[in-house]
Amino acid sequence: MSGSGSSGYLVDTSILSALAPDRPVLPDAFAAWLRRHSERLFIPCIAVAELEQGICKLRRSGGVARARQLSAWLDGLIKTYAERILPLDAPACRIAGRISDEATAAGRHPGFADVAIAALARGADLTVVTRNTRHFAPLGVPCLDPFADLPRD
Known about the structure:
By secondary structure, the protein is of the alpha/beta class. The protein has one domain: Rossmann fold. It contains 7 helices and 5 strands. The protein has helices at residues 13-18, 28-36, 45-60, 64-80, 90-105, 112-124, 133-136; strands at 8-11, 41-44, 85-86, 126-129, 143-144. It has a 5-stranded parallel β-sheet. Helix 5 packs across helix 6 (112-124). The protein starts with 7 loop residues before the first strand and ends in a 9-residue tail after the last strand.
């Protein structure tokens, strides 16, 4: 689905992970797209939890130095996007309940994190930017995989 009609973009954990330090260099076109849309990018609070969980798992399994590096990166991300980190509040939870029910009625059983992210996107009229479009497209939200379909705007 295209995100051209939305008011901005909700950046999923899969994309944020690709932006972490010491990850492979992003395609130039995607990096340029990120810069052009930087003021229209939002982060779901769920992604912060997923990233923190990954950092804790890394630390627990012995990757202390890498965990420290990623924790500092996440601190910077939270500081930079402080006003654009969307909370899972009561209105978003009601949307999540509807999305979850619609998915279940259609025979799908998405995880809570994806449902919550889809609810935040729907409530804020945002397109989900993700590597996992197959998880979000059935949830009735516009989504975009910038690694497969770089936007042409």
